[in-house]
Design a protein that fits this description.
27% helix; binds zinc ion
């Protein structure tokens, strides 16, 4: 059933800058998180998007992780689908290990 668009659960008065607590690995900007609030019903998505492996986590603005969503890890290495040398694979393995470590904190 197609209904009217649901308004954001966390409405922010114009001009107010809500406090958003990011984990130290988050590379997402503040403005992107403020936009998340409306799109994700008051939640934000923290993302680490540097290097060949990205990861993300859904959280409340105060930094509390949303327990209904598992952190996600995404391999963005340009050779991930086409094959890579052993050296490239080792680098990917290290990046993956680091991302797993960071995402499970
Ligand atoms: Zn963040």
């Amino acid at each position: 059933m197609e209904g009217p668009l649901r308004p954001p659960v966390l409405a922010i008065p114009p001009g107010v800058r809500p406090t958003i607590v990011c984990p130290d690995w988050c590379t997402e900007g503040y403005d992107a998180h403020v936009a998340d609030l409306g799109q994700w019903e008051g939640l934000v998505i923290h993302r680490s998007t540097e290097g060949p492996v990205w990861h993300s986590r859904v959280a409340y603005p105060d930094g509390t992780p949303d327990q209904t969503e598992e952190p996600l890890i995404q391999v963005t290495h340009p050779r991930a689908e086409d094959g890579m040398t052993i050296e490239q694979a080792r680098e990917l393995l290290e990046a993956l290990s680091a991302a797993i470590e960071e995402a499970s904190r």
